[in-house]
Design goal:
By secondary structure, the chain is α+β, with helices and mostly antiparallel strands. 25% of the residues lie in helices and 41% in strands. The protein has a single domain, classed as Alpha-Beta Plaits (2-Layer Sandwich). It is an enzyme of class 3 (hydrolase). Belongs to the acylphosphatase family. This is acylphosphatase.
């Protein structure tokens, strides 16, 4: 696994609220050892930040295209940035 850390700022569009998308994202991030956060936006999208080893962050961005079993993802937009020292993974309200 790559030890270089990166950060991805992700916006997920589709039927992604009310379908346990945030909880599944948190659980999956824990499995991959990725830090960051996830939250619902007022416009119906989900926003997330993933920080960790490059390959783990890339795997999380890829996972977002499917998301939770009940989700219907239309689009995933990801911008890569310098890590900002996120610790743990949280659901933001």
């Amino acid at each position: 696994m790559s030890e270089r850390r990166t950060r991805a700022h992700v916006f997920v569009t589709g039927r992604v609220q009310g379908v346990y998308y945030r909880a599944n994202t948190r659980d999956t991030a824990g499995e991959y050892g990725v830090d960051g956060w996830v939250r619902n936006l007022d416009d119906g999208r989900v926003e997330a930040v993933f920080e960790g080893p490059e390959d783990a962050v890339a795997a999380m961005v890829e996972w977002c295209h499917e998301g939770s079993p009940a989700a219907d993802v239309e689009d995933v937009a990801a911008e890569y940035e310098a890590p900002q020292g996120e610790e743990g993974f949280h659901i933001r309200r």
